[in-house]
Amino acid sequence: MPENAGTDVLKAFKFFLGGIPPSPKLLPEPLVNAVAGLSSVRGRITRLTNIERLFVTLMHREPDRVPCCTVVNGGSRRLVGHTYAEFSTDPKIAAECFLAGFNHIGGEVIVPLVDLSIEAADFGQKMVYPLNSTAHPDYADPVIKDVEDYRKLKPIDFKSASRMQGFIEAFSIIRKGVGLKGIVSGFVFGPLGVLSMMRGAGELFRDCISHPSDVMAALETITGVLVEFAERQCDCGAAMVVIDTLYASWNGLSKELWEKIEGPFADEVAASIRKKGAMVGVHNCGHGVYFDAQIRSMEPAAISFAHLPDDCRSRRELKERYGGQVVLIGMIDTPLLTHGTPHEVMEECRRQIDDLAPGGGFVLAPGCEFPMNGPLENAYAIVKAAELYG
Amino acid sequence: MVIKEKDVLDDIRAAVAAGSRKETSEMTGSALKAGSQAEDIRDAILGGLNLVRRGLMSRSASIPEFLLCVDAASDGLAKLSEARIEMGREHPTIVIGVVEGDPHEMGKAIIAGIYRAFGFRVIDLGVQVPAEDFVKGVLQSGADILALSAMMSTTMVQMPDIISAVRQKSPQTLIMVGGAPLDRKLAEQYGADGYAESAVTVLEETQAVLEKSSRSGQYRS
Questions:
Q1: Poorest-confidence range of A261-275, A348-362, B207-221?
Q2: Interchain proximity B19–A209, CB inside 8 Å
Q3: What does the alpha-carbon distance between residue A62 and residue A39 come to, in Å, rounded to a whole number?
Q4: Among A133, A250, A334, whose Cβ lies nearest the Cβ of B59?
Q5: Nearest chain A Cα to B18, which residue?
Q6: Coil, strand or helix: which one is A286?
Q7: From CA A54, how far away is CA A36, in angstroms rounded?
C-alpha cells in the first residue's frame, strides 16, 4: 500500500457513503484479502450481492458464480428507442440507454464506451454521426494529414473538450443510477488508438516505422490529455479505468515496436489511474494479444480480450499462464452474438466458464462491444449462462 | 563495374522485403536498363513481397512492415508498367470494396495491394460502397471475383443482401468476404464462395476458390 493508506481508506469510505463501490486498491491489502476470503466462503452457501461477487472475483477467489458484463453499449439505445446519433451526442440520453441496458438485461459491470472517437473529436477531428451505427472520424479529412502535423498537435484545455466532458457527465449519471448494484468502469482509448483516429491506421502504421519520433511526439501530447481524462473518471468514482490498446496485438504493431512506441505512454496513463487508487483494466480485441507486453507496461488488474494471446494455444493454457496475474474478462465471439441462437451462446458461455472460471478471476463477457444491432436475446443469454453455469 | 544479374534481382527482392520504395524503384529501373527480363524482375519483386507475407504467417513480420512492403512492390511493378512491359498473362478481374456505412480502409487497401501485385486487375470501389454500386462495378468490369470487406458488426450484416444481388445479375462472379467480425462459418452462412481471414491467407484462399470454379492458373503466388 502507498504511504497515504489512511487517506485512501477515507476516500473509500466517502465513496461508499456516496453509494459508490470503492476500488479495493483504496483499502489495506490484508483487510481486502480477509474480506474476499470470507465472502468466497459465504458464496458457497448463499448468494452474494453483485458487489461482493465482483470483489471476490477481482481478488482471484471463487465467488458464488461468475459475474458477467454484457457490454451492451450502443445496443442499449434500442431498449429506449434512441438513434445512435442521439446516443453519441447527448450524455443524458447515453446514460439513460446504459442504465436501461443494465437494469433490463443485467450483469454486474458497465463499461460506458460510446465510441472510440471521443478523444480524437476533442482534438479537432471531424466526425461522422450515422443514425444507426457507431460515430467515426471523417477519414477523408484527418487532423494529421502529413508527418509534419504530428508535432503540431496541441494539448486540449479540458474545459473545451465537449465530448470528453460529455462522457464524464454520462458516467456520473450512470454511476449514481447503478449505485451499489455494480461497478461502472471508466474507459480511455489508448494513445496510439486516439492518434489512429486522427491519421488513419494505415498511414500511422507506416509512420511508426518510418517516422517513430514524430509519432511519439504526438503520443506525448495525447497522453497528457488522456491522463487528465482518466483522472477525472477516477474522481467521479470509477473503481477501474480500462485502457484500450488495440494495437498491442497481431492486428497492430510487432511486440517490440509496440513496447517502444506506445508502451511508455500507456504506462503513464496506467500510473495516473493507479495513483488515484483505481484499478487499471486493459481491453484489446485483436488477434494474438500481447498479454505479456501489456502486463509489463501497464500492470493491469484485468484484461478484456476477444482472442487468445500470442503465446497461448488454448483457453486452459491462457488461464494457467495469466489467470494468476490478471482477472480475465471475455471472450464471447462477435459472429456468434450476431448470428447465433441464445442456446448456442449459452453453450459457448458454459464452455468458457468451464475453462476460465475455476479458481476465480474470471468475468464472462463478449470479447468486444456487444454487436450494436445484434439480437438482444443473446445478451440475456450471457446473463442466464452466468447464473446457470457460473 | 559489372553487376551480376542475380545480385541485382536479389537486391530488388531485399529492397521490397525491407519496404524501401525508393530503392525498389531505382533498382527496378536499373535492372531494366541493364537488360534483365521483366518476368525475372517481377518475380524478384513478388519474391520480396511473399517473404514478408510468409513472415506475417510465422509472426516474424508485422502489418506495418507488410504495408511498407506492399508499397514498395507496387512502386516496382509500376516501374515495369511505365516501361510498357506486358507480362503476356491473363489477369483475373477483382472488384473490391468496403460495404456501406463502414469507413475502414486499411484491411481492404492491403488486400487490394496484394491482388494488384500478384497480377490481378483490381477495381477498387473504396469504402462505404452501396450494394447497387457493387452490382454495377461487377457488371461493368465483368469481374471474376467480388471481394467484400466489413470491419463492423453493424455493417457486415449487409453482406448476404449484396451477395444475393450480385448473384442475380452476375451468377458467374465468385464472391469472397473478409473483415474482423467475420469467420469462415459466417462467410458460408452468408453464401460467399470464399473467406479471406487475413493478408496471409488471401492468395491461397483465392486460388482455392478459382480452382473450385475451374478458373485456376491465372496467377501464381
A1: B207-221
A2: yes
A3: 9
A4: A250
A5: A209
A6: coil
A7: 10
Supply the mean pLDDT for chain A: 93
pLDDT at B62: 93
3-state secondary structure of A164: helix
Check if B127 contacts A (Cβ < 8 Å). Answer: yes
> Does B154 contact A250 at a Cβ distance shorter than 8 Å?
no
**Euclidean distance between CA atoms A142 and A127, whole angstroms:** 10
Say which of A136, A205, A334 has its CB closest to residue B64. Answer: A205
User: In this predicted complex, what is the ipTM?
Assistant: 0.88
pLDDT tens digits for A197-241?
999 999 999 999 999 999 999 999 999 999 999 999 999 999 999
Q: Which residues of B touch A337 (CB under 8 A)?
A: 153
B-chain residues within 8 Å CB-CB of A251? 63, 180
Q: Write out pLDDT tens, residues B65-114.
A: 999 999 999 999 989 887 766 555 567 899 999 999 888 888 898 899 88
- Hey, what's the cell of A186? 471508466
Q: What pLDDT digit, counting tens, does each position of A124-149 carry?
A: 999 999 888 889 999 889 999 999 99
Nearest residue of A to residue B190, measured between CA atoms: A339
Which of B60, B24, B63, B64 has its CA nearest to residue B44?
A: B24
Residue found by looking up cell 452474438 in the block:
A337
In chain A, the DSSP E strands lie at 109-110, 127-128, 136-137, 183-184, 186-189, 240-244, 279-284, 302-305, 327-332, 362-366
Higher-scoring residue by pLDDT: B113, A173: A173
Q: Which of A139, A208, A374 sits opposite B103 (nearest CB)?
A: A139
Q: pLDDT per residue over B202-212, tens digit each? A: 988 999 999 88
CB A221, CB A141: distance < 8 Å: no
Mutation test of the interface with chain B: which of A250, A305, A369, choosing the one with the most B Cβ atoms within 10 A?
A: A250
Q: Residue B2 has what pLDDT?
A: 46
pLDDT above 90: residue A27: no
> Using CA atoms, how far apart are residues A126 and A199, in angstroms rounded to an integer?
12
The per-residue pLDDT for B1 is 42
Per-residue pLDDT averaged across A303-318, rounded?
A: 97
CB-CB contact of B54 with B65 (8 Å): no
CB A135 within 8 A of CB B154: no
Q: Bridge partners of B148?
A: B97, B177
Greatest distance between any 2 Cα atoms in chain B: 61
What pTM does this model have?
0.91
Residue A139 and residue B68: Cβ atoms within 8 Å? no
Chain B CB contacts of A210 under 8 Å are: 68
Residue A143 gets the label, from left (phi > 0), alpha (psi -120 to 50) or beta, of alpha
Q: Do A209 and B106 touch (CB under 8 A)?
A: no
